[in-house]
What does this fold into?
Amino acid sequence: MKLPTDKKQRMQIFALIGIGAVILIYVLFSFVWTPFQAKKKEIRETIAQLTEQIDKAEAEIRLMDRDHRANIEALQKIKELSDRCILKPRLTSYLLAARDVIDKHAENMGLTLEVKEGGISDIISAPSGGKTVPPLKIYTAYVMMNAGYNDAVRLLRALEQENELLCVSSMSILGDSSKPDTHKIIFYVQWPIWTDSSMSDKLNEMLKAATEAAGIQGGGHAK
Amino acid sequence: MNLRVELILPAEQRSASVVSVKGLLRIAAIVVPVLLLFGISSLVWGYTTLSNQLKLVESRWALTEPRQKAARTLRENAAKNEALAKQLSGWANARLSWGEHLRIIQRNVTPELKIQLSKLSIEPAMVLVEKNPARSFNITIQATAFGENAENNVLELRKRLLTDPALTNYVDSAEITRFEQSPVASHTKLDRLFYLAVRYVPRLFK
It folds into this structure.
């Protein structure tokens, strides 16, 4: 295509080409370059964010072996204390279970006593807004007997040495001036009990599941 | 007077510049589209590369996220179980071995004090110490002190309960809350009935 010979017309064509070029560049810049750059920035940010999340996640995953061990140790400790120290009902009766424990020691010492129901109560705890149910409650039984001070001390020591979670919460030793060696003794004994009575069975399942999970996670070395 | 004669028609005139406008236009007509094409290509290429990187990272995250959730669940369970184990241990810490403490109290009531216990009671209470649950115990000893040294002997018993090394970590205070002439008919005017209240330091469930 030849340019017009007329200088004025030629300048007009140059001006039109110039304007066309500016418009094209503006359109390309506004509707192609800028949105693409914005999208690229967004993708870069997403990649950076995901990479950070992955690094953080991998750091957490690396701690799984330690957490498996801590979980198993805690469950083993809970189970050991549960089996040995937490009072479990005989069918539905905690009193029968409490009597078994106290009568065993009393018989060994040749003491005669009565064990009676005290009831179940909650442990006082820091306010949780009622959102959580405490896993433990307190079962109380009370014991009445006529015995010497030393007999009472021996019985309490035997009970307390056998079970470190058992607590003698209240006691009254009343002397009788006509019988200086015999006192009227009443004491209250408290045991922790599971709020959920099936907790003992659940603990076995939890421990088994935790051990298996640790085995899978750590290739059998986490135990 | 100078005379200028234009022998070349305006249409036949040519620029004396080395770079002609026409030449520039021809170069621009090639260079500008090439530059534009290059810019757009690099933009698209960069975008595609980033998109592929994103897909790669997303697929890594898709694999990592469930494992992270499992790790978090495990940690929460471990923390919960550790707290429960600690709570159980707290029961042992919160109690007092009364078999041992009654023996210590008895050891301190020696014959030379001439004191006869008539009643000993242990009263419990559940309290919060800085928002932590704790057991609190108070002992009340009701007894009679015989003879003219009754007052000194009662004070001596109080002192012994406060200073016995086996009790110092446990006993918070010991107060004589009542001290009077014994009302029992068979006792003498010098014999004294007294109440000794011993307060124990609260024992936290932890």
